Amino acid sequence: MRKLMTALLALVCVTAYSQKTDKKLETQINEIIKGFNGDVGVYVHDLKHNKIVAINADTVFPTASIVKIPILLGIMRKIQDGELKYHQRVVYKDSLYYSEGDDILSNFKEGSQIELSKVMMLMLTISDNCASLWLQGLSGSGTRINQILDSMGLKSTRVNSRTPGREQNRSVYGWGQTSPREIAWVMEQIVNGRVFTKEASDKMLRLLSRQYWDEEAISQIPAGVFVADKNGAVDASRNEILYVNGKKAPYILSIFTKNNKDNSWEPTNEAWVMTRKISALVWKYLNE
Question: Are 13 and 273 in contact (CB under 8 A)?
């Protein structure tokens, strides 16, 4: 695994060196985010032309539920190593109960069984937090997931919750942390079949394409286009990372916010409105 990740990092260095900034798109995105009441980070990678837009792309932001991508890596590593099986049945225990939110798994009874694959689906598709905590535990620990992230060369992306030694980070960033550029890179490696194995990457990509929460960035993409996505939201932070397989130009887009003044949960939330505008702009700019 270490040799594979070293090779990946070398490839990333070569690719990054050849990337050019799309100045026109950058200007248009800056117009949208101008005056936003909070901090914004945006990263766009036009995969066809290898052009990027990076606005505060290396700033660290709370992940909110986007931490579920690192947890996905952790559980998929266990499956790849043969320690778990994708379709094996696992047993729910009351100690897994998570009181916040409207989780499906938290309504299970002690001793109920469910396939591991369905727990993964619930974590990614409806962002079930009980499923996330369960899978983090089955992955070994937050520490083990962070070791995987470190082996991939990631510096900002980490799991903080229930991870010894990261209590201070959790107080600042919550369950997890990342940067717009790093999480976009992770998504791109999955798209290109470079995380663990091609088979594992393809499985993760399909899981990420089954998104229930599709009313923000995804809503601006035509329904017939393949999209893999994960979003996350807490009061003062609204984020989204997506891969869009546009016929003219496939692309990766990540939008992160923090310290948001608007903490509302209506569709008119300032960060969500901005997310929809940026997503619509990038789609039209690259594919219409």
Answer: no
Provide the angle, in degrees to the nearest 10, between the axes of the packed helices 68-80 and 180-191: 40
Handedness of CA 218, 208, 243, 241 (dihedral sign): positive
Which residues 6+ apart lie within 8 Å of 176 measured at CB?
Answer: 62, 63, 66, 67, 70, 157, 158, 159, 160, 161
Instruction: Reduce the DSSP state of residue 39 to 3 states and report it.
Output: strand
Helix (H, G, I), strand (E, B) or coil at 95: helix
Single-letter amino acid, residue 41 = G
Q: Which domains does the chain have, with CATH numbers?
A: 1-59+179-288 (3.40.710.10), 64-172 (3.40.710.10)
What residues pair up with 53 in beta bridges, in sequence order?
44
Query: Which DSSP symbol is given to 197?
Result: -
Place of tokens 């094996």: 88
Distance CA 92, CA 76 (A): 20
Structural tokens at position 20: 């050019």
Give me the tens of pLDDT residue by residue for the chain, a chain 288 residues long. Answer: 444 454 455 444 444 547 899 999 999 999 999 999 999 999 999 999 999 999 999 999 999 999 999 999 999 999 999 999 999 999 999 888 887 767 899 889 999 999 999 999 999 999 999 999 999 999 999 999 999 999 999 999 999 999 999 999 999 999 999 999 999 999 999 999 999 999 999 999 999 999 999 999 999 999 999 999 999 999 999 999 999 999 999 999 999 999 999 999 999 999 999 999 999 999 999 999
Task: Tell me how crowded residue 66 is: count the other CB atoms within 10 A of its CB.
Answer: 28
Q: 3-7: which pairs have CB atoms within 8 A and are 24 or more residues apart?
A: 5/151, 5/152, 5/153
Dihedral angle over CA of 261, 266, 271, 273, nearest 10: -140
Whats the size of the chain, residue-wise? 288
